[in-house]
Fold:
Amino acid sequence: MMNFDLKQIVTAGMILFAVIDVVGNIPIIIDLRKKAGKIESEKATVIAGIILITFLFVGESILHLIGIDVNSFAVAGAFILFFLALEMILGITLYKDEEGAEITASVFPLAFPLIAGPGSLTSILSLRAEYDTINIIIAILGNMVAMYFVLKFTTRIERIIGTNGINIIRKIFGVVLLAIAVKLFASNIKLLF
Structure:
């Protein structure tokens, strides 16, 4: 039975919006766009949405099947976020361009782990325990719509803010992303031991 609950949809949507950090991802998206040349907004959004919705239904089972608990998954994701943050803060390049980079960048690291990352995936598992599935799906879809518009209009956003503005935002959100990575690592590593 489907129990639509506006409060659950809004709450789950706000939690996912904060974890996915649509606004904070703008500098990372701009960096990826420069490295790859082009990012397929539709493809990245659809793939991220599919990953999130699929994980809602089978995530915990898949992790248990391959012998990984949610905490180990979150710690691994924290490392990826940590390295992305270092790139932003220090201006170094750890992510190497590959042949066919525009396809690669749309899927990795954009759709996964930036949009559908360990934070959002573990949040979905937590939300599933408290909220009805249909409300979580609607919250995911709402976040994907917001992410699509950010991906589609990052070039315009960059023009409005300017190069110096982007550099400042990149450094600030690099530190924020680093803090999220450290928090994700710290809160999950102690549960492993």
User: Anything to note?
Assistant: Residues 99-103 have pLDDT under 50 and may be disordered. The two ends are 39 Å apart (CA to CA). DSSP finds eight helices and no strands in the chain.
